[in-house]
Amino acid sequence: MDSLIAAAARALATGDPLGALNRVALRDDAPALALRGIAMAQLGDLDRARLLVRRAARAFGPKETVARARCAVAEAEIALASRDLAWPSKALAAASAILEAHGDQVNAAHARYLEIRRLLLLGHLDEAEHGLARQDLTALTPALRAIHELAVAGISMRRVRAGAAQAALARAEEAARWARIPALAAEVEQAFAILEMPAARAIARGAERPLLLAQVEALLASKALVIDACRNLVRERNKVVPLARRPVLFALARALGEAWPGEAPRDVLLARAFGARHADESHRARLRVEIGRLRRLLRPLARVSATKQGFALSPRGTRQVVVLARPVEEEHAAVLAFLADGEAWSSSALSLALGTGQRTVQRALDRLSADGKVQAFGRGRARRWMTPPLPGFATTLLLPAPLPGN
């Protein structure tokens, strides 16, 4: 490694892409192309970065397996920042194995963390948690330790464990301070800010109030009967009745919960469950059938009884019924929730993350675009979607060790 390549690699390791470009911008050899690609990624030009890294991988000879593996890791990180979640994880795992076999433990660990972050974005929390448990924390650099703790915090937030998330972010903040990488410190700061933002709304007795993540955790641990509209289930502490695959039943349960301690009129239940504006006898018959199904499912937690005007919910052994709703509820709110991270998403990546069809996602994006809530740039497969204006900080794009071969 010559002196300019070494200096450029050190600049990238400290989050100084302009300093790296000053040293290798005019060079077209393979190591310089790779470092230029990482620098452009850190500056936000992801398309140019991807092209440079691919050129570098082709420029390295067939015997330079370590350098080519590092290029594969760099391209995977660019894909992650581009929210291209369909990149082949097997190729990344193969690159990680090559790096580990040749003693490059740092970049091998970095490759594994890229896969963990991808799993976290896709909502595969068990797999991400299993991947974290297999990491050797004693061998991590400060930058990788910060990334590890950010992933731990992300899983804890998804699992509504505010205390664990706070502790993980404190450890990430300390590691980022040792790493001295501004972008990494900004990412930790942004994660801290999320803990201070409303995570949900509590609706009870006709009133609603915003809840922080810690307050949501406390509510779920309380004796209240919680009708969880974030996960479509009804729960009382450890007793859970999942209704995610029974949308009509959950709509009825939520309407009953919002009306508690009073009754929910039949016309309200018909509108909420079936969208019926002008109910006829067939609607009322179907309502009786669905209420009967809901009554059987909720029997361990609550009673559903008929009244003169409709139906009422009576919890067993609890003093309160609370509906836990998302902070913002509107059509296509789930799509907006993913776009709120400030990154540019493809429709295919959103489809993977939401677990729904790409045509369904595209229709939602078109509707949101017509309403001015999202904007698109690029064409064809390069088309990306984001919310205007861009919030937060850019994803850190940094290989923690020099990309070229030793």
The ordered H/E elements are: HHHHHHHHHHHEEHEEEHEHHEEEHHHEE
Helix content estimate = 55-70%
Tally of individual domains: 2
Strand order in space, largest sheet: 2-1-9-3-4-5
Helix-strand category:
alpha+beta
Low-confidence spans: 389-406
How many strands?
Answer: 11
In what range is the share of β-strand residues?
5-15%
Q: Would you give the CATH topology of the largest domain?
A: Serine Threonine Protein Phosphatase 5, Tetratricopeptide repeat
Q: CATH superfamily membership of the largest domain, which one?
A: Tetratricopeptide repeat domain
How far is it from the N-terminal to the C-terminal residue, by CA?
6 Å
Average pLDDT reading: 85
- State the CATH architecture of the largest domain: Alpha Horseshoe
Q: Which of globular, elongated, flat, extended, rod-shaped describes the shape?
A: elongated
Largest sheet: 6 strands, mixed
Radius of gyration: 25 Å
Q: How many helical stretches?
A: 18
CATH class of the largest domain: Mainly Alpha
Characterise this structure:
The chain is α+β, with helices and mostly antiparallel strands. The protein has two domains: 3-195, Tetratricopeptide repeat domain (Serine Threonine Protein Phosphatase 5, Tetratricopeptide repeat, Alpha Horseshoe); 200-325, Arc Repressor Mutant, subunit A, CATH 1.10.10.10. It is 56% helix and 12% strand. The chain is built from 18 helices and eleven strands. It has helices spanning 3-13, 17-24, 30-42, 46-59, 65-81, 89-101, 105-121, 125-133, 142-158, 162-179, 182-195, 213-221, 247-259, 266-274, 281-298, 333-339, 347-354, 358-370; strands spanning 200-204, 207-211, 225-228, 233-236, 239-242, 263-265, 302-306, 310-315, 321-325, 375-377, 384-386. It has a six-stranded mixed beta sheet with strand order 2-1-9-3-4-5, with helices on both faces. A three-stranded antiparallel beta sheet has the order 6-8-7. The longest helix is centred in the middle third of the chain and has 18 residues, at 162-179. The chain is elongated and about 85 Å long. 43% of the residues are buried. Residues 389-406 have low confidence and may be disordered.
